[in-house]
Amino acid sequence: MKLSKKGQRIVLLLAISFVVVSAIGIYRFINYSTKELFHSFDNPPFSQKYPVRGVDVSHHNSYINWNQLRKENITFVYLKSTEGSNHQDRDYKKNYKVAKNAGLRVGTYHFYTFGRDGKKQAQHFIRNSTVKSGDMIPAIDVEHSPVNRPCNDKESYGKMIKELKNLEQALFKKFGKRPVIYTNKECYRMYIKDNFPDNPLWICDLHNEPGNDYKNWVIWQFSHTGKITGVVNDIDLNYYRNSFDEFKKLLLP
Question: CATH number of 41-250: 3.40.50.300, 3.30.420.130, 3.30.420.40, 3.20.20.80?
C-alpha cells in the first residue's frame, strides 16, 4: 500500500526521532562507562569497610596542605620518584619531606617504561629515591600511556616482560620485599597475572571494587578526581584492603 505524502512525513519523523533517541542513549552509556563513580572517601559502604585511606601524588598535582591531609584521616601516600632510566619527578624530594613531617606513611613508586633496560631503570630508581625503614614497600607503575603502547606482538611483549622482571628482581634484591605492582584491569590481564603471581597488587578501577580475580590486591585506587579539604584540584584516592594492623605488612622493616 502506498503511503500518502503526510504518512511519509510521519514515518520520516519517527525514523529521525528513533535515530536521535538512540544516539543520545549511546552517548550517555559511553559517558557513564568512562566516568568515575567515586570522588571522595564518603562512599558507604566502602568508607566503613576500608578504614585505611591513602593518596598518590606526582608533580602533576597542584597545591597540597599535607597537615590538613593528615587531619582528613589520610594514612599513607605514594609519591612518584622516577620514570624510565633518566626522568625524575621534580617535586619528589619536597613531597617526601613534607609528607613525612605531616605524619603520613610514605611510599615511593617508579613508572616503568615498556621494554627499556629493567636493570638501568632499577638503578635509576634506587639512586634517586628515599626508601627508609618504616616506609611503604616501593611500587612499580605498569600501565599503557603515550610512551607505553600495548604489546600486541610476541617480540615486544617478550621484551616488555623480560625487562619488567629484571626491574622487579633488582628492587626485590635491594629492599628484601617484593615490590607492589600498580596496574589496571587491562594491563593486569595482559602482563601481570601470569608473570608476577607473588607481588602485592595496587589495582586501579574507577567503577568496581577489585574482586577475587586479583587474589593479591592490597590497594584499590578508585578515583583520579578525588576531592579533599586542603588539596587544590583533583587527587588520586585509594583504600587499603585490610585493617590498620595488617597495614604494617606493607612497611619495610
Answer: 3.20.20.80
